[in-house]
Amino acid sequence: MFCRVLNVGLMFVKDKIEHQLTVGYRTSASAVLIAKDRIIKEQLLPLYEIEFVVRFDECDEKLAVGIATELITSQNVDVIIGPTCSNAAIISGVTAAFYNIPLFTWGLSTSSAFGNMDRFPTTGLLSVNSYSLGIAIHSIMLSFEWHQFAFVYSNKGDNEKCSMMKNDIGDVFAETEDVIITTTIRLKDVTSVEVIQALRNVSARSRIVVVCLAEGFNYKRTFMLAAKDGGYLNDEYVYIFADTKSKGYYVAILGEPDKPIWEDMATPSDGRDKEALMAFGKTLVVSNHLGSGFTDGNYDEFKNSVISRMKEPPFNCVEDCKAVQYSKVVDRKDVYSFESHSATLFAYQSPSFFVK
């Protein structure tokens, strides 16, 4: 029986340390092999043989546009999965639209720009976008009858996430009249001195503070301890940590168990964990709660399979994946969703997508 080859281009982040935890190649790429097995088992594409072409865009726009073009024009892919960051995915999505090739982005791609079907007619977003997060914040504000807030963010540790969130949340509240953003402050660095200075400016305008900071760098803990030290942690203030990729009050650590957000990640510890725990009692978290909550046996089996199958083709990741930090998958439901959606995407049988 004749089988047509379905060429799937994969774009990953491999060596950017700040993204290895959330969308790292070594702990997520083989999810597509699990999806492929499901397609074969369920006979979703009986007349197709699926092959993969792997590239590393490193969430860099220049690399992404070049790789997307090469995958389409030289590798003749039928579909692209990735990139996993907003800016790289945006420019790749425009390229894919020009060539009429479907592109599915996931992970850290949270920009609401992908909702523009005229601009991105062939792009599918598999992530929660930060515009939706803004709608959630708006609902919280109305529930508590809060009508104004300040937005404080930093790009330290992640150049995209909080900037995208600032823009998308700004768009949400520009369309409403019942809640306003009184001020927006960007922290150049997340230090006690800078946080206290920012909160001094905030205090003249608001008592509700929405905060966006990168995960995994102790930044949220530093922020709350600075608020306490500066006298901005009392019954007048509420701090809302907003994040599209978060586990709430726990921090995912590559290759290690999750850690409570109030515990110091530095060695030696500063001995202020109890103070930090009390400080976080003045906070709320708005998130899709990435990987939190109950997980069943299927998900546990999936996590173990992702690690073990990185050794298989086309990845053949043996020496490069043997470090301790790559020995387990962090509880990341986006990778699980990536696998689940991949099976559906590969099985999409519309000729306008896969038949040139």
TrEMBL record:
Highest taxon, organism lineage: Eukaryota
GO CC field: plasma membrane
GO terms, biological process: signal transduction
GO molecular function, one term: peptide hormone binding
Keyword Nuclease part of the UniProt annotation: no
EC identifiers of the protein: 4.6.1.2
Entry keywords, A to Z: Cell membrane, cGMP biosynthesis, Lyase, Membrane, Nucleotide-binding, Receptor, Signal, Transmembrane, Transmembrane helix
PANTHER family: NATRIURETIC PEPTIDE RECEPTOR 3-RELATED (PTHR44755), RECEPTOR LIGAND BINDING REGION DOMAIN-CONTAINING PROTEIN (PTHR44755:SF8)
Name this polypeptide is given: guanylate cyclase
Biological source species: Dictyocaulus viviparus (Bovine lungworm)
Lineage of the organism: Eukaryota, Metazoa, Ecdysozoa, Nematoda, Chromadorea
